[in-house]
Write a structure and sequence with these properties.
It contains six helices and six strands, in the order αββαββαααββα. By secondary structure, it is α+β, with helices and mostly antiparallel strands.
Length: 160
């Protein structure tokens, strides 16, 4: 075994997650992100997205503009998925939706906490403004209340 390691003859295999066929083209794809990018490169035909504007259809987005918009969405979603391991996903979505966090002083941090809590719209979430003396800055803390009733399935009455 030592000789195999010393000579560099040990390889780590990573099986693909998907096998995709399109016409005569066949390829193996390793993850969801790569699959999404591959699907974006496929011919789109006459696909278009139209944003409704005051009851009438807006100007359609299609072709390369639609492909670029979809690519940007996938990249942004990948960033949100990575950040969701560190930051509350609902908070990230609220920030993406336009909630601006102002943490320059205690009053603006408190107002940002209230605005973020309202944007998250969940009664099991509380957002607090807090001053951190170690870093000499204000920050927001998100607390999720998890109760026994929110975690367990509804029970069925039993007869005795």
């Amino acid at each position: 075994m030592t000789t195999l390691v010393e000579r560099g003859h040990i390889y780590i295999a990573q099986p693909p997650l998907y096998k995709v066929k399109h016409g005569k083209d066949e390829r193996y794809i390793k993850d969801d992100h790569e699959l999404s990018l591959y699907l974006l490169r496929l011919p789109r035909g006459r696909a278009a997205v139209r944003r409704p504007r005051r009851g009438r259809g807006g100007r359609p987005i299609g072709g390369d503009a639609l492909a670029e918009l979809a690519r940007q969405y996938l990249l942004a979603d990948a960033v949100v998925q990575r950040l969701a391991h560190v930051i509350d996903r609902a908070a990230l979505e609220a920030i993406i939706g336009g909630v601006e966090l102002r943490l320059a002083d205690a009053a603006s941090a408190e107002a940002s906490a209230v605005e973020l809590a309202q944007a998250m719209g969940n009664h099991e979430v509380e957002v607090f403004a807090q001053y951190d003396a170690k870093i000499d800055k204000h920050r927001l803390l998100i607390h999720r209340r998890i109760t026994a009733t929110s975690r367990r399935a509804p029970s069925t009455p039993t007869s005795r």
